Amino acid sequence: MAKIKTIGILTSGGDAPGMNAAIRAVTRAGIYNGFDIKAIYRGYDGLITNDIRPFTTENVSGIIGQGGTILKTARSKEFATEEGRKKAHDNLAAAGIDALVVIGGNGSLTGAMKFAQEFDICCIGLPGTIDNDLYGTDNTIGYDTTMNTIVECVDRIRDTAQSHERIFFVEVMGRDAGFLAQNSAIASGAEAAIIPEDSTDVDQLARFMERGIRKSKRSCIVIVSESPKCGAMYYADRVRKEFPDYDVRVSILGHLQRGGRPSARDRILASRTGVGAIEAIMQGQRNIMVGVRNNEVAYVPLSEAIRSDKPFDRKLIKVLDELSI
Ligand code: F6P
Q1: Whose CA is nearest to atom 13 of ligand 1?
Q2: Residue whose CA lies nearest to ligand 1 atom number 10
């Protein structure tokens, strides 16, 4: 295997708070250890359009506390095609990049895995997504900040919910994963969470209404995982129809959940995994994601990281149920 001299770095998919801290960590640790760093703008699209620029430590000064990603990001349709990946590889080779660090979520790391397999290039993933749905890391970069943002919003919604004695359905992000919904429900003292992982129960709403949520409380908050078919609007409409005397409102938090300054935890996770990525490259590791498990930096093959079955601790459902009486 040829010696790695130049490392490319990109962010891809939905932005997540802490991505900048990760860019900074990879750049600084890379330069500290004698590598050249090249930044690729707009995710995989930038590889295809050849938007590649050399990076120095100055490029990453003062960014640790900024939300979003200074490298911009995209969900590249072209990179999903063989032709697109070939173009990307040609540009990568012309820029002299021998290893690629990809900061992103499930789709982005799937792209990295395919690319690594097709062109025999060293790809290292960092778990950058608010969804926390990557296997092999306890938390993903951005998850903690987003959870705190949701909790702050729900605290505010509770003030108005209690004042008007209303039922609020608050929709949060998470794509197909309920980590954000379940844990933010616990942390904000919500009465229930409706999550994809609980799909064994055909009708989560019926179960929750049967428990007589309004026997002891005049207002309540239900956190709902986003879903194209049965998001917060769907449940609110049903309650309006089935319980016409309830005063129901919906609040879809949307993209405000992805913005904002990263929490200390996300900055530390990004810094540790960024340094871990450079260590992995120096050890000759390839095609892995760097995560943190049980407070230790851990390497997991990309093929495992993208598995859709990140374990969901079902005891969290019990915790919320018991505490919401
Ligand atoms: O993957 C991160 C995420 O925020 C998901 O939770 C959400 O489903 C999706 O991205 C939204 O994507 P977009 O910003 O493209 O609408």
Answers
A1: 14
A2: 14
Q: Do domains 6-142+262-305 and 143-258 have the same CATH topology?
A: yes
Ligand 1 pocket, residue 129 CB under 6 Å: yes
Q: Is 203 annotated as catalytic? A: no
CA–CA dist 52, 130 (Å, integer)? 26
User: From the CB of 174, is ligand 1 less than 6 Å away?
Assistant: yes
Q: Does domain 143-258 have CATH number 3.40.190.10?
A: no
Backbone angles phi, psi at 224, to 5 degrees: -120, 130
Is the predicted pLDDT of residue 202 greater than 70, yes or no? Answer: no
Q: Is the CB of 276 under 6 A from ligand 1?
A: no
- Positive or negative, the Cα torsion across 176, 179, 185, 188? negative
Q: How far is the CA of 245 from the centre of ligand 1 (A)?
A: 35
User: What is the value of pTM for the model shown?
Assistant: 0.96
Q: Quote the ligand 1 centre to 215 CA distance (angstroms).
A: 36
Sign of the CA dihedral running 192, 293, 309, 277: positive
CATH class of 6-142+262-305: alpha beta
Q: Where are the domains of the chain?
A: 6-142+262-305, 143-258
Q: Which residue has the higher pLDDT, 308 or 157?
A: 157
**In this model, does residue 191 exceed pLDDT 70?**
yes
Sign of the CA dihedral with 299 first, then 100, 73, and 78 last:
negative
